[in-house]
Amino acid sequence: MTVVTPRVARSRKAVRALLTAATWLVLAAAVLGAVYGAPGLLDAILRFAEEVPARWEELTAVGPPP
Asked: Which domain of life does the UniProt lineage start with (predicted)?
């Protein structure tokens, strides 16, 4: 059995606190990125969806290109 000294216990607590804080910061950044990036991403998807029929016609057209 390993004996954990008070100094080691404090170090472990400090490391755990730093990892927890870093995890929350990363999660908060991901949420903010999703919130601020969603409108632009949605707009790009909708624009692409509008262009799909025209692109499909170009790809499936028979004959020489104009």
From this structure: Bacteria
CA separation (Å) from 54 to 27, 35, 48, 60, 66? 40, 31, 10, 10, 14
- Residue 33 scores a pLDDT above 90: yes
**Residue type at 5 in one-letter notation:** T
Tokens for 1, please give them: 């059995």
The beta strands (E) that lie in the chain are given as none
Q: Which of 25, 24, 2, 26 is nearest to 12 (CA)?
A: 2
Residues 12-16: contacts with CB under 8 Å, at least 24 apart: none
As a whole number of angstroms, the distance between CA 19 and CA 12 comes to 10
| Confidence category of residue 66, pLDDT binned at 50, 70, 90 | low
pTM of the model: 0.57
